[in-house]
Amino acid sequence: MDASTQSTELTGSFTAAAWDRIAPIMAEIEALPLLQRLSDGTLPPEIFRHYILQDALYLKHYARCLAIVAAKAPDNAQVLRFLGSAQKAITVEQGLHAGFLTQFGITSADVTSAEPSPAGFAYTNFLLATAYHCSYAVALSSILPCFWIYWHVGEAIKNRPVIEGNAFQAWINTYGDPQFAAGAREVIALTDIAARAASPVERAQMTDVFVRASQYEWMFWDSAWRLETWPV
Fold this sequence. Notes:
Catalyzes an amino-pyrimidine hydrolysis reaction at the C5' of the pyrimidine moiety of thiamine compounds, a reaction that is part of a thiamine salvage pathway. By secondary structure, the chain is mainly α.
C-alpha cells in the first residue's frame, strides 16, 4: 500500500481531509529539482552533502519534538504506540545518515559545528514551539507531515526504474521501506484518533499546523537545492 492509497482509504477522516488540503503543496514538492535529480542519480554531490547535513541537524530537534508529543498523549496506550512508531522512523533515519555521512566525507565534527539553514531553523523552531505550547492533538498534527510526505515521496521514487550506480539509492530504499511506512501509518492512525476527540476549534488548529509543516517540508528541500546559508 502506498501513501496515496492510504489517503484514499482514509476517506472522511481528518487526515484524508488534511492530505487533500495540501494537494497543491504536494504537487510543488514532487516537482522539486532536488528530488527529481536524486531519483535519477544526477544530483550534484555538494547539494546532497548540504541536504544530508541539514537533515542530521533537523533530526536532533525532531526527535525531541516526538518525545514532547508522546508525553502529552492522553493514555499509556497512545504513549506506547506513538513512541514505537517514532522509534521506527528515527532508527531508520539515523542508520541512513550514518551511511551517507561516511560516504560523502562528513565527519562528526562537521555535524557538531554546522549551523542550521534559515529554512531548517524556522522549521524546527515551529515544531518545537507547537509541541511545547499546543495540545497533544495539535502537536501531533504538526509532526505528521514529515512522516507522511517522506513516505509518499519515497514510495513514488521507489516505483521508478532503478538507475544503476545511483549514489542515492539508499535514500530511496529507506523511505520506500515497509518499516518506515509502518511508522507513518501508525502516526496517521493516532492523529485520526486525536482528531475525533478534539473540539472544532482544535481541529481547525490541527489543519493549520499540518499545512504549515507541509510548507516547511517544501522549503527545507528547496533550501538545500539552493545551498541556502544565512545572508548576513
